[in-house]
Amino acid sequence: MTQSPRLAQCGELKLGCVRWASAAQTAWAAMALMACFCVMAAPASSLDAVRRAVRYLVRSQGADGDWPRGPITGVYSRTVATTYPLYRNTFPLWALAEWSAWSAAQRLPLHGDVAEL
């Protein structure tokens, strides 16, 4: 079975290529990389990227449990800019839950200092 070139590139994605990323966007990238690991053997750099994303999500969460509101990222019809207030909390929580389950299944360290992720 031949692997799709697009799928092969999936494991090569790197986080931190942009000047800023919202918590939701970071969560999306982390979940995408974790999904790639489930389908294929991804390079160690992808695991490092997921760990950096998890570290960012944990460190950027506020004392009240919310993540900071990032810049408006939804633009359509070239005239309407929109933001989705629930995204900033829903997707980071989802990604952290996915990390918890995924890292346990992979027998990766989960508990302890965030710096150890």
Question: Could you name the key traits of this structure?
Answer:
mainly alpha, two-stranded antiparallel sheet, disordered N terminus
Notes on the protein architecture:
It is built from 4 helices and 2 strands. With 117 residues, the protein is mainly alpha-helical. It has one domain (30-116). The model is unreliable at 1-18 (pLDDT under 50). The chain has a two-stranded antiparallel sheet with strand order 1-2. The chain is globular, with a radius of gyration of 15 Å. Strand 1 and strand 2 (80-82) form a beta hairpin. The longest helix has 19 residues, at 87-105.
Q: How are the elements arranged and paired?
A:
Blueprint: H1 5-10, H2 23-39, H3 44-60, E1 74-76, E2 80-82, H4 87-105
Antiparallel strand pairs: 1-2
Helix pairs in contact: 2-3, 2-4, 3-4
